[in-house]
Amino acid sequence: MRKKIVAGNWKMNKTLQEGVELAKTVNRQVEDTDVVVILCTPFIHLAEVSKAITKDSLFLGAQNCASETSGAFTGEVSVDMIKSTGAEYVIIGHSERRSYYHEDDALLNKKTKLALAAGLTPIFCCGEVLAERQSGKHMQVVKSQIENGLFDLSAEDFGKVVLAYEPVWAIGTGVNATADQAQEMHKAIRDLVSEKYGTRVAENTSILYGGSCKPSNAKELFSNPDVDGGLIGGASLSAADFMGIVSAF
Ligand code: 13P
Known about the structure:
TIM Barrel
């Protein structure tokens, strides 16, 4: 069965000391249940936060990775470097990377393959902007992001990927997708995966929702059959809010 996952994406927040404190608090509060909890920290926090994690259900992830394996790429961080910190996950294709850093489908496909080769689990993000939803193109946009980013993977490799649907209009706005909007998209994504890789792979793929998810709406969002958890931005910066979301399961 697919995993239930709550992943915090700290984005560019918290100094090293603040991040370690937050990780320690989450580590203390997290219970060993069947919910996988992931902290996706800035690169420079990874090695220290890794030491703060002692619970079996708490994991570490990065928010991005380089599209090359090593060499003269000043300022970049490779998948092997990420893996060497103890991290097991990496967010790929977040909408902020797609829009501010012009990361396109081909680049994200390359990063995904590097992550998989390094033994990291990609958390692959997709999602439409408001204008695309308003013009009824949201399904098509998400479909093409997933097809172009992932559908040349083998079934075995695709089976290792976690998907995250994050409608851009819901990120950091306080306006979350409704439970129905989330379920509709997650179901469409699962059907798409099923057509390509078969029902078994589709049923085993965790699809997370992201965008203004908070303790007050997490229960309703997560109670949908195709919503397997959340990718949490703002609310992951407070242990109380983040744990409130984790306990929504
Ligand atoms: P918010 O939870 O702050 O809306 O951010 C969602 C997100 O982008 C997680 O990756």
